[in-house]
Amino acid sequence: MLSLNTLRYNKKALDLCKKEGLKSIAFPNISCGVYRFPIKIACRISLETARFWVENNPNVLDEIVFVCFDPKIKKYMDSLLREE
C-alpha cells in the first residue's frame, strides 16, 4: 500500500507544479526503510514516478530534488540516477 501511496502523492505533487507554473520540486525520501518497507523499492518508486512524469510532461520542470536523510539512501539513489 505504501508504494501505491508514494506513487500517487508524487504524481499529484508533480501535477500541481505544472498547474501552478512551478519550475522545481523537492521530494524527501521519508518512507525509505520506514515501517520495514524496503529502501531500494521505495527509492525506485520515487525515481521512476518522476522519470515517467517528466517523459510525459517535457519542459515543465527545471529541477527535481530527492532529499536523502541517510547516506545509505543517497548512495543508492545516486546509483539509480546513473542507470540512465
Protein described:
With 84 residues, the chain is mostly helical. It has a single domain (2-81), classed as Leucine Aminopeptidase, subunit E, domain 1 (3-Layer(aba) Sandwich), CATH 3.40.220.10. The chain has 3 helices and 2 strands. It has helices at residues 2-20, 39-56, 71-81; strands at 24-28, 63-67. It has a two-stranded parallel ribbon. The chain is globular and about 35 Å long. The mean pLDDT is 87.
Give a quick rundown of the structure:
57% of the residues lie in helices and 12% in strands. It has 84 residues and is mostly helical.
> What is the number of beta strands?
2
Could you say which structural class the secondary elements and strand pairing correspond to? mainly alpha
Residue runs with pLDDT of under 50 for 5 or more positions = none
- Average pLDDT, rounded to a whole number, is 87
Beta-strand content:
5-15%
| Main β-sheet, spatial strand arrangement | 1-2
Q: What is the CATH topology?
A: Leucine Aminopeptidase, subunit E, domain 1
Order of helices and strands: HEHEH
CATH architecture: 3-Layer(aba) Sandwich
Observed structural traits:
Leucine Aminopeptidase, subunit E, domain 1; 57% helix; mainly alpha; two-stranded parallel sheet; 84 residues; single chain
Task: Describe the SSE topology.
Elements: H1 2-20, E1 24-28, H2 39-56, E2 63-67, H3 71-81
Parallel strand pairs: 1-2
Helix pairs in contact: 1-2, 2-3
